[in-house]
TrEMBL record:
The keyword Cytoplasm applies. SUPFAM superfamilies: Adenine nucleotide alpha hydrolases-like. One of its GO terms (cellular component) is cytoplasm. This is Universal stress protein E. It comes from Xenorhabdus poinarii G6. InterPro entries: UspA. NCBIfam families: PRK11175.1. Belongs to the universal stress protein A family. The keyword Cytoplasm applies. Required for resistance to DNA-damaging agents. Keywords: Cytoplasm. It is found in: Cytoplasm. Residues 4-146, 173-301 form the UspA domain.
Length: 314
């Protein structure tokens, strides 16, 4: 259930405005809960100052941390004065994504929010290496926030995989729709929920190598399979047929186009969290999709996901 009560906001140290903190406050005001504003910082020059003793270096680090805490308090002063429960925590760590994920785990946070930078001309979101680490490895849902107000009459779009290539897709589809409906009821208060799925066209090599192969028959059969699967999914959650979309094409093109058409405020999709050789061989389809989005993104892992980051015992 999307009853997010313990939110962690990854503060952007290069921004005076913090859209992710603003979105977290929006959620808490409607759903209750608490917020922790978290910032890992590191400056190599402090570690290379060999003339200083360890005690002096620690004192300098604490001074920098204190300055950052004061800066975050200034950024959040309006929310704090209005009674929003915000804890501020700054740590010294040279691996930001590990520090954030470890904080998620040790603090039992159920939602991580972070700002996603946007391209000035295309208005699409740009994801940094830190963003990708968090999207792939964070055990709780990750809400990537675009610096814009929620669109008027904005919708929530759920990207589902109806290919039936792997059995885990079915369970993940159910989880995505269930979480989005709960999110809409608790937080967003009433936008239409749309389900979208893409299916591939007939491969060109088959068309050219097998003269008797009819791509139209193939495409119609594949579309029919997806429509049947979409009908079963929407009926399970009482979603109107007009709020379902099955289109031919690659997901990275179809899903962003549908989101634009529907004036989406957020798109919810599943991320399997593949890393290393698995990611290189199988790819991360969701990552190709979200590179082209122009709205907020809520990325959710499947049940049973094992986080590769371990808690630092120190």
């Amino acid at each position: 259930m999307a009853n997010y009560q313990n939110l962690l906001v990854a503060i952007d140290p290069n921004q005076d405005d913090q859209p992710a903190l603003r979105r977290a406050v929006y959620i808490v005001q409607r759903n209750g809960g608490k917020i922790k504003a978290f910032l890992p910082i590191y400056d190599l020059s402090y570690e290379m100052t060999t003339l200083l003793s360890p005690e002096e270096r620690n004192a300098m680090q604490k001074g920098v941390i204190g300055q950052q805490v004061a800066w975050i308090k200034q950024q959040a002063h309006y929310y704090l004065e209005s009674g929003i429960d915000i804890e501020i925590k700054v740590v010294w760590n040279n691996r930001a994504y590990e520090a954030i994920i470890q904080e998620v785990m040790t603090g039992n946070h159920d939602l991580l929010l972070k700002m996603a930078h946007q391209h000035s001309r295309l208005e699409s979101m740009i994801f940094t290496p830190l963003d990708w680490h968090l999207l792939r490895k964070c055990p709780c849902p990750v809400w990537m926030v675009k610096d814009q107000v929620w669109p008027e009459n904005g919708s929530a779009v759920v990207a589902v995989n109806l290919s039936n290539e792997e059995p885990y897709h079915n369970e993940l589809n159910l989880k995505l729709v269930r979480e989005t409906q709960d999110l809409a009821n608790r937080i967003v208060k009433g936008p239409l929920i749309h389900l979208v799925s893409a299916y591939p066209a007939a491969p060109l090599n088959i068309v050219t190598e097998i003269p008797s192969f009819d791509p139209n028959v193939y495409n119609q059969a594949l579309r029919g399979q997806h429509l049947i699967a979409m009908k079963a999914l929407r009926q399970k959650f009482h979603v109107d047929e007009q709020q379902t979309h099955v289109h031919e094409g690659v997901p990275e093109k179809v899903i962003p186009e549908i989101c634009d058409k529907l004036n989406a405020g957020v798109v919810v999709l599943g991320i399997l969290g593949r890393t290393g050789l698995s990611a290189a061989l199988l790819g991360n389809t969701a990552e190709h999709v979200i590179d082209r989005l122009k709205c907020d993104l809520l990325a959710i892992k499947p049940d049973g996901f094992v986080c590769p980051v371990k808690i630092d015992e120190e």
